[in-house]
Every structure is written in C-alpha cells, then in structure tokens.
Design brief:
Elements lengths: L1 E6 L3 H13 L2 E6 L2 H10 L4 E4 L2 E2 L2 E2 H9 L7 E5 L4 H9 L4 E4 L4 H16 L5 E4 L2 E4 L4 E4 L2 E3 L3 H12 L5 E2 H7 L10 H14 L6 E4 L3 E4 L5
Parallel strand pairs: 1-2, 1-3, 3-6, 6-7
Antiparallel strand pairs: 4-5, 8-9, 9-10, 10-11, 12-14, 13-14
C-alpha cells in the first residue's frame, strides 16, 4: 500500500484528495501545519509527501528544504495554486521532485505519484543518512558533515548495522552475534564497548548515535 502524507491547510481540498487516493488503495494522512508534518515525519516516513506552498505556520518550501537535509530520497510533490514559473523554479530548487498546479485532475495526480514512485524504486539505495552522518555503501566510506572519516572495518560494520536499523534499538547481543571478522573470530562484549567509544570519538560524539543503557544502541535523527 502507498502511504501518503499530505500537508495542506485547506480542509476541503485535503479531504477531496484523500478520498480519491484512498479509493486507489492508498493510505493518506493529512497535516494542517508544517509543525504537525514535521512531528509525523520524525516518527515515520511515508512513501511520498504531498505539500502545499502556503501553510499557516510558514511556506511549504521551508519544510521541503528541512526534509532534504535529512531524507534526500523521500519523494516530494508540491500541490499549489502558485503556478508562476519563478515559484516552480523555487519549488524544485528547494528539493521537490514534482510540481502540480491547482486545480488539477485527481487521476493525473495519482498517475504522477505512481511514476515518481517507480523512478524512486529503480534507484539503488547506496547511501544511508542520520543527522550529520552519511554512510556510502558503494565506497565503503563514512562522512561527518561531508568530511570523510577514517574508520576501521569493524567500526564500519557496526555503524552500517545501526544505520540500516535507524529508529530501532539494536541490542548489544545482536551486535555481538552479527559482527564477525573474515576469520570468524567472535567480537566480545569488551571489544564492542571499546569500539563504540572509539567510533563516537571519531564521529565527534554525534547526537544521533544514542546509547540505550544496559540494552544497546540506536541511530536517531537529531531534529530541530
């Protein structure tokens, strides 16, 4: 099922779009402010975000830029009455993937959503993001604020496991079970503690890498 977040303060438009898309087997959640949309995005990412330009607590392009700093891969579509070419350029410059001017045909909107998701699905996810950290799985490299950080093979594997499970706590036991070297040597509990301490220091103690005391670790975006 396609999960859609729709940031729109015009209730009649929002409900019309929601009713149509849910008949197409989508699940649509409506948010009447930028603040509400941010709170929802902190907890869960949808398949696609539909975004109005003028919101009661700011402009949609502000939310678009906020998302792009944290989730570069999330498909974003502007739905707005602002059809001036300058506004459209600003929308795309803010990070939008598509721009639809009101009024629009609902069937066309749905088709554009499907096309956008097809393109997104064909893009191999090679980079993981959390806070100021980026992990490039193709390069086997770690970056903090765009500066490459030299990490050991063991540190890389630990960070990869944590970032692939972003938002979920990974227990120490699971880390110990899954982090093996090429010779099959087991990583003991003390090695894990020392490695995590060293990794934190190399990454300048990132707030997105959290310790769940007596249990494990969790990667979590540090939002404003």
């Amino acid at each position: 099922m396609i999960e859609i977040y729709y940031a729109e303060d015009d209730v009649s438009i929002a409900l019309s779009v929601k009713e149509y898309l849910e008949r197409q087997n989508c699940m649509v959640s409506i948010f009447g402010s930028i603040a509400d949309a941010k709170n929802a995005l902190r907890n869960r990412l949808p398949s696609v975000l539909l975004l109005d330009w003028n919101m009661p607590d700011g402009q949609g392009r502000e939310l678009c830029r906020w998302i792009r700093e944290r989730q570069p891969e999330l498909p974003i579509v502007f739905l707005t009455v602002r059809g001036d070419s300058r506004d459209m350029v600003l929308g795309f410059q803010s990070g939008a993937d598509d721009y639809v001017v009101k009024p629009f045909e609902l069937a066309v909107l749905y088709s554009r959503i499907l096309a956008l998701l097809r393109r997104a699905g064909n893009q191999k996810e090679t980079k993981l993001f959390c806070g100021d950290l980026t992990l490039d799985k193709e390069k086997l490299a770690v970056f903090c604020r765009r500066e490459e950080i030299a990490v050991s093979r063991l540190e890389y594997r630990i960070l990869l496991l944590l970032m692939e499970n972003k938002g979920r706590t990974v227990t120490r036991q699971r880390l110990l079970e899954e982090i093996w070297d090429s010779s099959g040597n087991y990583v003991n509990d003390n090695t894990l503690t020392v490695t995590m301490k060293r990794l934190r220091e190399k990454l300048d103690n990132p707030p997105c890498l959290k310790t769940v005391r007596s249990f494990g670790y969790r990667m979590e975006d540090a939002y404003e």
